[in-house]
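User: Predict DUF1985 domain-containing protein's structure from this.
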Amino acid sequence: MLRIANENASLWYHVGNRVIRFRLVEFCLVSGLTFREYSESSLELFKQKDSRLRRSYFQNSKVHVKMIIDWFRNLSPSNKNSDDDIVKLALILILEMTLVGKDDMTSILYWALELVDDLDAFNKFLWGSFLYDRTFNSLSTCLLGCDDKFKNKFIDKLKKKDDAPVK
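Assistant:
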């Protein structure tokens, strides 16, 4: 078993007049998802497989979020789509657009497309642990190298304020 990568780590943010901490506990409170240790081998089972949904509905092409959205827009009663497949693709869309937070031209998590084909496995998957790791890593690296840019913007504003004519 692997431990959750950043289980004891914290990120601190200064927002307005408050200091806010982000840890696993806060993530679980806000998201409502549960967590525990998980194994990368559980993902490996699905990374190796061929996706029936991808093959059936997207001709094995690279699948973007927009393709799934378009697929739903083109659904009609005359289509002979399985109700189960409609639910499975809706779950992938919810996962990608809300939980993972991708834009519509980003490729989806292909292993999740395989995982959702087994709804019991999809529902039992430790989404809280997986999404916390992704969120923490993204938040801890998203501003790397940006601090000078923000400092310069702040200094430029102060200079403009000092150079402004007094009324």
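The mean pLDDT is 79.
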